[in-house]
Design goal:
Length: about 210
């Protein structure tokens, strides 16, 4: 199994990327993790992570799911995932800042995450970006359009409510599930449209035959 690369940037919503990594590791899918400098700051400020010892912080969180993850420092431009000859299924940047999105759209390789995205584009592999910004101005939209025309999947961090979320975890799981759908990975993170109605019918009509 080739595994996936997961990038976490300085956009708000680092919990999305962490949750995605958890779900992949639970399924024994190898994960390569790249976190930008701003991404580490958001992990500290939003999730309360102690980030002075970065590899140790990741180990403390992810080793409970097994050993199938590898951390690549953002400045390690010579990492395995920077080469097209190193085979992976693709890259998910979740959340994706507008700065990282801009770098990817113009083909920059100023750090490992941008270089890995460039590899995915040139090798024809899956590239999924989860932008988290509001409001959006014209440059943001033009960069997304440029990438969408190249086959990149743009999945904005937008919650839905038809699945009747009851907690913040439910909202996070919905977005992670939408991304996993795009990755082609089965999951049961939320009730799909139609399933919710069926569940409501079972609750209100417990004796109804199926």
């Amino acid at each position: 199994m080739r595994g996936w690369v997961v990038g976490i940037t300085g956009a708000s919503g680092s919990v999305y990327g962490i949750r995605l990594c958890e779900e992949l590791l639970k399924r024994d899918i190898p994960v390569h993790i790249v976190i930008t400098e701003a991404g580490w700051r958001v992990l500290r400020e939003e999730l309360g992570w102690m980030t002075s010892q970065r590899k140790e912080a990741l180990d403390a969180h992810f080793l409970r799911y097994g050993n199938s993850y590898e951390y690549h420092p953002i400045a390690d431009i010579g990492a395995s995932i920077a080469s097209g000859s190193f085979r992976t299924e693709g890259l998910v940047v979740m959340p994706c800042s507008m700065g990282t999105l801009s770098g990817i759209s113009r083909g920059a390789s100023d750090n490992l995450l941008e270089r890995t995205a460039d590899v995915m584009l040139k090798e024809g592999r899956r590239l999924i970006l989860v932008p988290r910004e509001t409001p959006l101005h014209a440059i943001h939209l033009e960069n997304m359009l440029t990438l969408a025309k190249m086959g990149v999947s743009i999945i904005p961090a937008m919650p839905a409510f038809y699945h009747m979320p009851r907690s913040l975890d439910d909202i996070v799981d919905f977005l992670v599930g939408k991304v996993m759908d795009n990755m082609g990975i089965d999951h049961q993170l939320f009730n799909r449209w139609g399933e919710q109605a069926n569940e409501h019918e079972r609750e209100t009509n417990p004796h109804r035959s199926h």
